[in-house]
Specification:
The chain is α/β, with parallel strands linked by helices. It contains 8 helices and 5 strands; from the N terminus they run βββαβαβαααααα.
Length: about 200
């Protein structure tokens, strides 16, 4: 049983390799996210005669190059939720937060949870599409809120006090009196023409 703990960073990772009973085979060392360095790491993992499992935390998108490369080489890779790892690390008596310490903790987590580790499966197309649509939705809502604030500020300059007169208690975007008013009376002349 060999557990390889990888602490992922933006352009590099810190790797610690342990055997059964916590014996450290390789002290923490850095690996850049280049084909050459990842190739050397994969060759080292494959060269072990024992069953090996790589454990790393999910880090947005930084872990994807390492995960993809190692899985292409046929290496078992388990991606762990960072909250689970944080909870696991909090039971330790020795506190500290460095890349070397984190890689040691991750490799120890791999040994302690050896039989519960699962090989990461590539996302299905539908899940990936839903994730993309979700991101687009949140970007759209963020843009809409920013534009609404800009409109409110502009109206406050051109028609002082209008936001107070047409204040809406509704949390729904569809029921906004100020937006409805501006859509109908988009220019000051439209209001002056009325009786």
């Amino acid at each position: 049983m060999i557990s390889i703990g990888i602490d992922i960073s933006k352009g590099k990772s810190t790797v610690c390799i342990r055997k059964l009973h916590g014996e450290i085979v390789e002290k923490p060392f850095e690996v850049k996210h280049t084909l050459e360095d990842l190739g050397k790491l994969a060759d080292k993992i494959i060269s072990f005669d024992e069953e090996s499992k790589v454990v790393l935390e999910a880090t947005g998108h930084y872990h994807i190059p390492v995960l993809s490369y190692l899985q292409e080489r046929g290496i078992f890779v388990c991606v762990v939720n960072p909250m689970l790892m944080k909870k696991y690390a909090s039971i330790s008596l020795r506190k500290g937060k460095t890349d070397k310490l984190d890689s040691k903790k991750i490799s120890k987590f791999g040994l302690d949870n050896w039989y519960e580790l699962t090989n990461y499966k590539v996302e299905e197309d539908i899940y990936y599409e839903l994730k993309t649509l979700s991101r687009q939705y949140f970007q759209f809502m963020s843009l809409r809120i920013k534009l609404k604030v800009m409109l409110s500020n502009l109206l406050d300059k051109t028609m002082p006090g209008i936001a107070g007169l047409l204040a809406s208690n509704s949390t729904s975007f569809a029921k906004d009196k100020l937006s409805d008013f501006v859509q109908k009376y988009w220019h000051y002349d439209n209001i002056v023409k009325l009786s």
